[in-house]
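Final report, results section. Input specification for complex C-07:
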Amino acid sequence: MDTKLEPIVKNIQQKFNATFEEFRGEVHLFLKPEQIVDVLTLLRDEHHFELLSALTAVDYYPQTSPRFHVIYQLTSLAKNLSLQLRIPINGNNPGVGAGSYPRIPTATGVYGVANWRERELLDMFGIEFEGHPDPRRILMPEGTEGHPLRKDFPLGYEEPQFTFNFDEIGLHKPRPKE
Amino acid sequence: MTQIEEVSIDQFKHLVSERALTGETMLLNMGPQHPSTHGVLRLLLELDGEIVVNCIPDIGYLHTGIEKNMEAKTYQKAEVMTDRLDYMNPMGNNLAYVMAVEKLVDLDVPPRAQALRVILVELQRIASHLVWLGSVGLDLAAMSMFLYCFREREQILDIFELVSGQRMMTTYFRPGGVWRDVPVEFEKAVREFLKIFPKRIDEYETLLTKNPLFLDRMLGLGLLDAATALSYGVTGPTLRASGVDWDLRKARPYSGYEQYDFNVPVLTEGDTYARYLVRIQEFRESLKIIEQALNKLPFGPVRSENRKFVPPPRSEIGVSMESLIHHFKLWTEGFPAPRASVYSAIESPRGELALMLEGDGGPKPLRVHLRTPSFDNLSVLPHIVKGHLVADLVAILASIDIVLGDIDR
Amino acid sequence: MGVEQKLGDMGVVTTTLENVVNWSRTNAMWPMLFGLACCAIEMMAAQASNYDMSRFGMELMRASPRQSDLMIVAGRVSKKMGPVLRRLYDQMPEPKWVIAMGDCASCGGVFNNYAIFQGVDEVVPVDVYVAGCPPRPEALIHGVLTLYEKVKGEKFKDLAEKYG
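Structure output:
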């Protein structure tokens, strides 16, 4: 680990009782959902992590607890450091639709970019952010069912049309009117 | 399928001012099919006369499902997706992807391949900025800029075609090196470009930099201060025009950038004109890097010898059965990557382009996240257009240099 | 200059109305500026200095569908863009033609997934498909010239049936 990063990680570890992993020089800190806003504020204000480079998630379906990791990739320009925060959260609560999604607090108050990135996560993974000012889908059209980047969402592969199955596919391929 | 859902104001109620609800201000739709939105971006504008009160970008009209599709492909095959991500910068996307894969499986890259990558990525940066400059010209009704810029861009595309056989979607970089060595004509072609291009930059500058019409449309518009820019994750020339000296090529050198001597242009004004100036200066810095890399271009192999991840060369396949089987296995089954995640970033013409690549022990990635610079750069737009005229909105939008393929992925 | 010098002093040219109309349609086709993705850049390159598509009577790209009669769908069409594309097509005055430029617009290309239409022919009828990812500007120009051949062979009778 970078010598400049070590005290920061230790500080977070002690304050928030976090665990960490290291792979090829990258440090991943594991936190609980309710801690995230405090940790982000602390990192931004005291440790100069000015840039939230990426905010994304990973789906470990069919594993259910935790099913998702929400990932915050932070960059410090002043110290030239990177740090990744990971929040393991479980899958859906029982039921369907809004309100049954996993929820974590929003980071929009700390980083402006979290606004769009959290909307993207809501759209792509169905992870809700409590207190988000504008919880709408961002990439998929309104009214889409499901969340494409979840592992149980099908890729939507269609059989390509070749000479041997030309007619067969032509039968059910939609043809628009003039 | 062919019906567009009527948009009601309820959807955007919390984003517009109260005056819009009483009908005092006007809501105007701009895009997704509009010549000045640089693609299929849709902006919902709240206007008071000609002044923009609120601007609500609506993206996703080019959502391609690249991240999901890459999860269904092996590490070698997923690379073709990255070309089509940010279509102004295919070489750079390839570089970001192969660097992430190399980091994940711990693969070495020979020095010649690294230098070739630097040359081609910098050429791509120039080509990308040229398209940007040409389309800014078009937006501000300077048609001649478009014609000039595309003239030089063709020269760069010819070099790409020379090395890879394709003009745009090259997929020339592969994990562990490049596809094959460059042909002998490569050096001559690049030198010719190096000779011609500085004069051409002067030509652009004579046309635009001190042109009063251009200055009227650019100066003092879309002011972006450093704190807001960082909070909104803005990177690249847009951030450097706001006075933050942050360039991954300097801060975290990759692919041998530490060997080259170049400056990072930084301006403090933070307006559209500063962003234009930063990009013009980047032309010259890129030329410097290309020249140094070409002078120092080492000889040697262009692909790693690590046969676990890199297929054997063609010459071996013809004479050795084992190599043939090995090649076949690598391309049909792919290579396994560890169950771990890496984050690898490069400086694309638009900012920090990064991949978060997570392997699951098999030949296909578990998750590919593309941290694309345009997405974050666009998210700051609503804050910097407030109070400007609609006509200036076009100039501000152009100055951020967005690519919709990069935003919607 | 032109036809007078080559053919001498010809007072009268006899031809059919169909030929004249089709000839004039081909030589003043106004494409709609409809760039979606990567192919749009090659479409711009075809318009720019090196390839100069205006040699074929189409230097004006119109941004408004109501002023254009050729739609060049340059790029992948997402599920969100499909309805917009159809509306723009419906707004174009007849007669109108569509070129599907590139693999994505022709058949989905490399993107066989949930987000992309597997060919723009699922949304609007297509006259000419141009292969390539992206097609070179020459390929686009060839596609346009192929469309010209098609237009020159059109019969009023068929058009009357088509448009009622």
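Residues 111-139 of chain B form the longest helix (29 residues). The mean pLDDT of chain B is 88. This concludes the modelling results for the funded period.
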